[in-house]
Design brief:
The complex is a heterodimer of chains A (about 170) and B (about 180).
Chain A: H1 2-19, H2 25-32, H3 38-59, E1 70-71, H4 72-89, H5 95-102, H6 106-130, E2 137-139, H7 143-147, H8 151-171
Helix pairs in contact in A: 3-8, 5-6
Chain B: H1 7-29, H2 38-52, H3 54-59, H4 61-66, H5 72-90, H6 101-107, H7 111-132, H8 136-145, H9 149-170
The chains are: A mainly alpha (about 170), B mainly alpha (about 180).
Chain lengths: ~170, ~180
């Protein structure tokens, strides 16, 4: 049952991806060369809705958080390695398989590279655990915990700031 | 290209999908499923390695931590191309191609060169995402929606790595 729900969620997500033009190499490279912000706009509006919705769910006790731990060095270095790969591949881990569905067969090699990357990481994990993961390790923390403010309030302020940023982007004609 | 949705509509629907997924999976199964895609690669690579060498996978600390085999996350990632195929077919936008047009203008139209580039890029995004703990969906969407501190470091890294390299590779050409 849970597997079926996962599949249905993925199908809906892929449908949205295709309609919103998120599966195109040109859109991802457009973001990274700051010439077409489609992918950024998609992510920004997703976080606006997600931040208010998730903070509502958790505040009302309808679902808990599943926070990813903070390891400052690993978060940053891993993010940069990801960014370098993103610039070459032009898709992300969800949109590479999605691009195949739209007919972009180069996504197949992105997925294969990803599987080899995952296996390589699994075998090099002990090295990172001894090194980077020890730097700036603060555990599962969130902004409301750090700021000692109600999560729903922080979520609303954050969503408001993102909306202001979106308004700015539109005003500047991006 | 004409009949697509606004990225804001697509993003807002994805935000709703995240909230619905967390609510439904927690109420039905007792654990919230936040959208994220890079763990699925680990679960599948572990499953493939297991077929070759079960002992190596059983001994591997990372595979033990993340688990291997088909689960909700793998099904999620399998669903994405199906949904994309459905949307592309319904709107007459399904088109087979080996090399993206923008890539062609910088690196030529050889499918082999593009395949090698995509493979290396794919390797780096998953290696980097696993080191960082997630990708733009796991950290970007789900992490930022939870206001997780880790998400802000990772997303900074995505752009700090991606923007300079993309500008070097493709230049600032407006299309």
């Amino acid at each position: 049952m849970e597997l079926l729900i996962g599949l249905i969620t993925g199908i809906i997500w892929g449908y949205i991806f295709q309609r919103a033009r998120i599966l195109r190499f040109e859109k991802h490279i457009g973001l990274l060369t700051l010439t077409d912000l489609t992918v950024l706009k998609f992510l920004l509006s997703g976080v606006v809705v997600g931040a208010i919705g998730i903070q509502l769910l958790t505040t009302l006790g309808l679902a808990p958080y599943h926070l990813k731990p903070t390891f400052m060095a690993a978060n940053l270095v891993g993010g940069v390695i990801y960014g370098l790969g993103w610039a070459v591949l032009g898709y992300c881990p969800g949109t590479a398989p999605g691009a195949i569905g739209e007919g972009s067969l180069d996504g197949i090699f992105g997925v294969l590279g990803g599987l080899v990357g995952a296996a390589t990481f699994a075998h090099t994990y002990p090295f990172w655990k001894k090194t980077l993961y020890g730097i700036g390790a603060y555990g599962k923390i969130s902004l409301p915990m750090v700021l000692h403010l109600p999560p729903l309030l922080v979520g609303a302020i954050f969503a408001g700031a993102l909306l202001a940023f979106i308004a700015f982007l539109e005003k500047m004609g991006w | 290209m004409r009949n697509g949705w606004s990225p804001y509509l697509g993003g807002a629907l994805t935000g709703l999908l995240l909230v619905a997924s967390v609510l439904v999976t927690y109420q039905l199964f007792g654990h919230p499923r936040y959208l994220g895609t890079s763990t699925a690669y680990v679960r599948v690579s572990g499953m493939i390695e297991k077929a070759v060498s079960p002992q190596a996978v059983a001994r591997n600390e990372y595979y033990r931590k993340e688990g291997t085999g088909i689960d909700w996350k793998v099904m999620l990632v399998l669903g994405v191309p199906l949904g994309a195929l459905l949307a592309a077919l319904r709107n007459g936008e399904f088109r087979l191609r080996w090399v993206p047009e923008r890539w062609t203008r910088c690196f030529g139209n050889s499918p082999v060169v593009r395949a090698i580039g995509a493979f290396i890029g794919g390797f780096l995004i998953i290696y980097g995402a696993r080191l960082a703990g997630g990708c733009p969906s796991g950290h970007g969407l789900s992490g930022m929606s939870q206001l997780a501190v880790s998400a802000f470091f990772v997303v900074t890294g995505f752009f700090a790595g991606g923007i300079p390299l993309a500008l070097i590779l493709y230049g600032r050409e407006r299309r």
